[in-house]
Structure formats: C-alpha cells, structure tokens
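Re: folding output
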Amino acid sequence: MKKMLLLSITMILSVSLFGCNSNGVDSKMIIPNQLVLTQGDSISVNGESSRYSLHSLDFIDKNLGWVVRSDDNSNEHCSQILKTEDGGVSWKTLKLNNSNIQRLMFVNKTTGWAVGQADSKNTINEESSLIKILHTQDGGQEWDVQWEGKVNLSSGYHLWFQDTMNGYALISGTLLSTRDGGKQWSQVICGIKDFTPQHMSFVNVDTGWVVGKINWKDPSKSPDQNPKNKLVVLHTIDGGKHWRQQFAKDYAAGTVGSVDIDFVNATTGWFLTSDLGTWNDELYYTANAGKDWQKISQIRSARPSPTEVKFITPQVGWIPLDVGAGPISGGLMLTKDGGKDFTIVGNEDEMSSNREVDFISEQQGWVVATAPSQGDYLMHTGDGGQTWTQVYPKVRPTKDISFVDNQHGFGLGQLSDSGVLLYTADGGDTWKDIYNFSEKFRPRKLSFVNRNMGWVLGTSLNSEKTVILKTTDAGSSWTPLDVDITQQSPYFTSCFRFFDPNNGIIVADHFNVFRTQDGGRSWQVSTQELSIASFISLRQGWEILSSGSKPNTVGLSQMKDGATWQALGQISSNAWPIGIDFISSDKGFILLEEPAFQLDSRVKLLVTTNGGRTWSSHQFPQGLIIETLESAIPIQFTDDQHGWILSTQGLLRTRDGGKTWTWD
C-alpha cells in the first residue's frame, strides 16, 4: 500500500527546472498565456469529497428516510443530515451548525429527535462532553434544543420513541425518559449499584429492557487485585420506575460488554455479548419476555466485529460485521431461524464491511457499508438481501479512469464493487455500470483509445496471474489476450496506456517496461527503473524523479527515442510527486505535495507548455485532501480545458484548464 497523502494548499511561486527555487520568480520563465491558468492564478474547488462517515440510518417507509453524515476531514466536526423522499435515488442535505449528531430517530414524516455533542470540537481525548437532545417538527429543517447535560463518554447513544410524546434516550450510560414529547426529560434510575446501561430495547412506553455491566471487585482480594465485571439484563413493565434483573454473568475485568439488545414484540428478544478476553460474542434468546434466556449462537468478534442486532420478525434478523482497518472480509449476517444459524449475504466487495442496517420489512432494507480508506456508502435491497444497489453517494470510479474525449470516458470500480466497469457520456457527471469482472478477474488499470476499443489489466482470480483483456464493443464483452507478462504485477503498475489500436505501454513499478505494437498480443520488455511516468507514444515520455530522502528532491526527465532519458532539471528541493500527465509534446501537468511528509504539506498543480522546460505553479484551496492507494494519483487531461483527478476522496473535474475543480 502506498503512502497516504494528506494535502492542503498554499501560495507557491514559479519553479524552473534549471535550478531556480520557489523563493523568486524569473520573468523570463513565465509561460505565455496559452492555457486558462496563468502564473499566479489560484485554484478553486467546488462541492464535497466522498470521504465521510454515515450513521444513524432511519427509514419510516420505503421512500422517506434520513441518515447522518459526518465529514471525516472537516476541522469543524459538524454533522449533516441527509434526507431522501424517493428511497435513496436523490438526497437533500440538512446542515446542523455546531452539532456533532450521534443518533437520530423519526416517528413520522415531520417529528424526530437527535442526540449528540453540543459543539463541533473533537472530544476524543476528553472524559466528558456537553450533550444535547434536539427536536424537529418539520422533517429535519429546523431543530430545537430540548435537553443538555454533561455526561461521561463511556458508551454510545440510543433513541426510542413510541409516538410523538413518549420516548427514551440512552446517552453514554445515562437513561432518560419523556412523556411530553421531550419538553421535559427525567433520569431513569435502574436501582442497581454501579450498573451502567449500554443498550436498550422497548416495545411500548412501559415495557422494555436494558443490557449493561456492573463493575465490582472481589472483597476477599486487595483493591488492586482480581477486578471483575458482571453483564446484566434488566426488565421494566412500568416505564422504568422499577427494574428486575433477568440475566447476570461474571467476566474478567475489562472484557465484558454488550453489542446490542433487540425485541420484536413483548415476548421475543435477543442480546449479544461482547467479550474482548475471548473474542467470542454470545447471542442469547428469549421467547418469554426474558424470564429465561438461552445461548443459541456464538459469533467471533475480533475483526470483523458485530455492531448491532436487528430482527424484523421472530425468525428473520441481521447482524452487520465491521472489518475496521481491513483488509479482511466482513459481511452482513442473515438468520431465518431466529438466530440459530447465520449466512453471509452480498458479494465480498459490496458487503465487505458494514455497521448499520435498517429494514422496514423482510424485503425492504438499507445498510451502511464502508470501503476501506475511501469512506462510507449506502446500499438498498428490495428483495430481502439477494441483490443490493448503491444509493449514496452517486456511483463514480474508485480505481482508474480513461477518457477518450471531453464527454466520453470509462472508469474502474465503485465503492460498492471494485470489479465493475463504468461509463460516462457527460464528462463524469453521471456514471453507469456496463460490465462486471468480479467473478473471474480483479481489474487494476484500464486504457481506451476510442469509445469502442479498450484494454484492462488485472489478475485472474483462479491463477493469480497477470491478465490483459480487450474489448471492441465499448466494454459489452471482453476477450483475454494470450500473452505472457509474468514479470509484471498489476498491483504495482504506474502506467498502463494504449496510444492507438496497436501501440501500448506498461510501466511496472519500478523496474520493467513492456511495449506492444500489435494491440497487446505480444510484448517486449526492457529493464528501466521508472516510477511515476507519462507517455504520449512508445518513444516519448516524462518521468518524475524522487530522491526518497529528507528533504525529498524532485526532478524531471524526458525520453524522446524510446531508450534514453535526459534530465530536464529539478522541480522542487522538498516535495513528493503525486501524478503526471502530458497531452502533447508541449503541454503537461504535474501534481506535487510540498513540503514532503509534513503535517502541513501543501499541494500544487504545475503546468507546462514547452515540454517541461519551464513550469507555472498554482495553489489549491487550503484544506483540500487528496489521497491514493496506488503508486500515483490518476490524472488525465483530454485537452487544454478538460481534466480529471481520481483519488480516494472522489473524482475531481475541471472544465477550464485546472482553474476550477468540482467534486463529482
């Protein structure tokens, strides 16, 4: 996995490849105004990237739903509420100023509640935080504060409402209730010393359960020895005035916890333990309102980890599995026998990591899934989990791009399936899935020379060998080429490009260069130590050179004869190369991070109109973040005006030569 790049932008002066540093501007080096960008111009970025987290999913019917979005890269840590009225086809953003929402719930199309931190500060390292309960009566447009208080950050946030008047809020171990729609909230006392409720489930305002833990120590031991915890389930039938213990089990200290508790009616329910000591969670079941609990399943809890328990009927239930940092596979667990047996639904890509589910029936449901290092996305099923469709954000490429003109292009991968081929006819505004390689092939790179002819480089799932596929019908069908390029690994490919129906090149990071002159049927290999490079033919190309030391010197070399590289000079004395693209022998673009490997690293776009002899440089807005998992950021221009940058945050597009970029 390549170095993840944290990028924001500052003012950067003109850079010469013949030794001039960035502290001064030589008027002789300024490039004539042939592109839209001219020396000194800054760059603007519109829209929002797709690096964010989604949580607190809540649908009240098949069309109307809400989900909380928190931008991971935002310095303000404010939440947004996304609302859909068409089942997820389109979404409206409802921004909450100075609020970091952790949970929301609606009882109808207008009335809902939200709970979360009262300010936008990052309180990860704080022991307590000011929490607010918010209320809306217009579907989420406006919110009023109903309650606020300082609570210890010991566990999560949960809401449950029976109607517009009666409900409960469990806020980091503090249980609150209301009987007047939230105008007044009162704390519910469970009556057991040192008990901390972690999860709750109510079937009506009077009848409910909480699961939590009791911290205690064996009195026969010294205070610093043999600490223990007890997991407890409590039950109330009078709205929390009185509680009865139904289940208790001792655990070693620090290991006990609960994942969730869920009742589908007044008698049938489940709770899932969390035992970090053994990494095995236990699913317990009751059919008599908790008078008797029996263990019916055991689920391993160490990456992937179960996140919640959601049953739709006494037989049908779901448990999402979160992989965390990856790269292991998680899934979405489904039971149809009340929790005795589970199966994993969805393919490995689209259901690899999941945190939340929300089903309004056995057939209609949504799930919050995660693409490692690329953010969260929302999937919908209308057939009980047999098939899934990505409904947020809109589909866009995640692995590679290849545009054949300003409007028409192809992309590899999407958040919900890394093996799909995408196509756009509007410059990247919208993309549609036209082919899926996932069953037999793991695609990595692609190159199209026109709307019909293209190639994809990747790995066979059966043999793990490098494979090249070719299409002549715009991606509708693909033919494997009978080639032997065993020296090349598609996981380390910095350049894969065809220039016309016959001529193409592969640069394997870092030592082998493959060339073909017969459309990919045969390849000639040469040993050249190349890293980030751009070619406009088999004979002519440019390479960014990096010293890899501190400070990290970056230079540029050019090849004109297919064999010999000539140094053009130094670009920066302390930077990290990100991407490069030349569209002709004169015009090219480079992305750099500067200074290299620093928390305050800045990125700049360099532009040349004389083959790389001189460059103008331009700043992006401060706070812009661009990251990649590959050897280089895919950057492509089709002419002076139209270009794209693909990163793990999304797809950036420009229509004015790089002066203005938009997140697609």
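--- second protein (sequence, then structure) ---
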Amino acid sequence: MSQLTRRTVLLGGLGIAGAGALSACSGPAGPGAALTTPHAFAGPAPLKPTPGQRVVETRLTAQPVTLDLGGPTVETWAYGDTVPGPLIRANVGDLVRVRLDNQLPTGTTIHWHGIALRNVADGVPGLTQDPVASGSSYTYEFTAPDPGTHFYHPHVGVQLDRGLYAPLIIDDPREPGGYDAEWVIVLDDWVDGTGRTPDDVLKELTGSSPSNSDGMGGMDGMGGMDHGSMPMGPGQGETGMPGIPGMSMGAAPFGDAGDVSYPHFLINGRIPTAAETFRARPGQRIRLRIINAAADTIFTLALGGHRMTLTHSDGFAVQPRETEAFYIGMGERYDAIVTLKDGVFPLVALPFGKPGQARALLRTGAGSAPAATVTPSELGGDVLLGSDLVPAPASRLPDKAVDASTRLTLNGQMRPYVWGMNGAPYGKNTPLTVREGQRLRIEVTNMTMMAHPLHLHGHTFALADSGLRKDTVLLRPMESRAIEVEADNAGDWALHCHNIYHAEAGMMTALNYRS
C-alpha cells in the first residue's frame, strides 16, 4: 500500500460504499446491452483522396523499448523509440493515413484525441473496432476537419500510462501567425518501468476492499465521505453536500486530485534534473502548444518571470486572456503566446495535490539554470481555470435551439475501486442517445469529491453558459455544468473520464446515434 498516495490509504478503511452502490443504480438493459455484446467489425473502407487533396502518410510501430528519461532508464512501450512519439502534422482538409504496426505483446489501438473524424477511425475497441492484435497492422484514415493542438494515444486498458502518446497538430494555412517560433510541450506523469507498470497500479487500486465495507452505501460520519459516497441517483443531492454546510472548495478547487503517486513527472519525456532546453532571443514571441498526456494528474503550469496569453482551448480560438499560471486537466490542450525576456527561466508544471514537478528550461541569454526544484512565484498567485475562458466569435457553435436534453452523473468510490456514469459502470449503464441533426444538451453533474476531465469522442461541445468550445472539460467536485453537442457525426461514440484509471474502472458510457 506504500505505493499508493497517502490520501488513498487514509480513505481505504473508512467504511465507504461497496460496489453495490453503483451497480444497483444501473438502468434497464435497453441499448446498454449492446455494450456487452461482441461487435463484428469488418474494418474501415479505404478512403480515396479527392482531386487536389494532400495525403499525409505516416507509419507507426508500437513496441517495447528501453528509454532514458534523463537519468532513470525504464522499460516501457512506445511509438518507435522516443517519448513523446513522432509528431504528426497536417493541414485542415488533408487526408491523414497512418499505418499502425503492433509489435506489443497484446492488442492495442490509436485514438485521435480531439479530432471529429469518421467513426471507424476512432480507435475504441468494442465500440468502433477490434483491438489490433499483436503482430498485426491496421491503417487509420481520416480527413482533418479543424485546426488545433491535439494528440494521439491508445484506448486499450491503461496503456496510455506507458509511453504510447504523441502530439498531433492540424494547421490552418490561413492563420496569420504573429509569432516567431512554436514549441510543443507535452506533460506526463510516469510510473512504468520503475518497479511497477500501469497494470500493477490498476491491480493495486482494484484488488482489495476493506473488511468493514458492507456494500450498502452507508456513511460513517465524515469518515465515509470519499470521492463518491454521495447519493447516486439524479435528483438526490447532486447540487450540494448534505450535512456539510458552507464547505468551501476555493482553497482546493479539485478536491482529491488523483489516485496514484508517481516517481517522475515529465516535460517532453525528460525529468526535471535533465530538462529539455528551449533556446530563443529576447523579445521573440513564442507560441506554446501545451498537451496534458498524463493518466492521473492535473497540472498547474507557469513560466518563471513571464505572463502568458492563452489563445486556444482544445484547438479552438478564445478571446485572448493573460495569466501567470493556469490549470490543465488530463486530455486538455491549451495554446499560449509569450514574449520572452532575457535570461534563463524555468517552465514548471506542478502536479496538483502531489509532490514533485515537471520542468523545462527557456534560455534567451547568459546565466545559470535555476535549480530543478525551483518553484516560480507565478505558481503562488491566481491560477486560471480554462473553463472560465470566453470563446472567440468564430469558435462558437451556430445559433440553434436545443432539440433534446439528457442527464449525466459521474459517480464513484475508492473501496472497492468502482467508477461509473449514471449510477453504473460501463457495460451496465445505458448509453445516451441522439438523432442526427439534433442539438443535444447534456446536464452533467459530478457527484464525487474528485475532479474529472470529461472527454467526448467524435465531436466538440460548447459549455452552455459561455459557448466555450472544448472536447475535454475539467469538472470540479460536486460541480454541475451543461454542455451542448451538435449531432453532426453519426456513429457510436465514447464519453468518459480522461483519468485513465477511472475510465478503466467504469467511468465511461456511449453517445449513440439512433434513427
């Protein structure tokens, strides 16, 4: 148990809800029965380029590798022999064709995170394809629809928490630019090959339960309050915490921020004592494309001695917002512009609620590098939450009345380690449904004491209160938020928490198109 976080250990023996608390709330089989029935996937039909369409072709090999993280040497899985894997870059409208050669000892897929692509290319086993078997190949093809900063990763088990991730950038040739250089910053939490694998971590989380858990959903006073020992059904306390009047979330906006302790946090595959160094000249304007590829960690990011101007959220333009620091949840991406000063400065990603940090260096002049443990003062001030940004006018969904609405609750508990949506884990919950052409409003309530990054495949959505376009939104503990989806991409699509351990333990459902 010393390998888990102290918070997890403390919550482990507090008489919290058993697995029955979730499973008892599952809906009727209905459409959800299809989730437990094997699909027959014939494989995608090849796409032919349209006249004048550029084709961007890449070949990826997923394989076991030995990597140097800047001191620690680890056995892991990666695309090729680097972490992050190869950058894939295309223009809006290009046909992207990627052949995956699977040399791993097990099946895998690739999900193109943030891309509203055709359903057969989305990479979700059991929903859009079968896993690509060990020793086999599979070709993904899609037309790049929207510009932005995205990334790709597997959607099998907890493979994301290895080295299987890489940036995917879609450019708009019409974009005016207005910056001198561009840096891609990929954040990660790292455990693989350090004496544990992600599969070991998942087993630790799910493999035991306390003897005093009666499975009846009871609470032992304040001790029973964990991530999800709240009422599970809609309308039962989703707007507040019964018995805890006046509880403030202001000091800790994400409550319990993660389940796993990590020995390393990385920027572009490097630990802080061997940080990657970016070089430029004073006065240059730099575009930062920042991706949180972590499995279980929210980061607070700041560049020492500088203020950044956020310009994009999940690929979509926002009204520029200047800040010293901002939060970035798992699966989120933000673009920022910074005008560089003269010297050597730390770019630090501080894991929320966990010890340690990730670091890179910016060098524009002479001087010694700050210590690997330095914490920029910018991290101690006001921190921007990305969902508070305002969309640029061109990023808004077209004006349209809501045609349909539904509700989604996020539920869960630590012991046993079971997470779910609408009161049941994936495979037992009933998918959300929509008809093509509808504007769907989803009323989402996080009924747990933990933050969850909610990610929708195949679409972007708008936050109903502001119109901000995203595909991944970080929901704070007990927060309710409405999102609106334009149902313009038919198929069966995953909707899940992007904490990979929560998703694997059941915090996932589907959004299915119905005629």
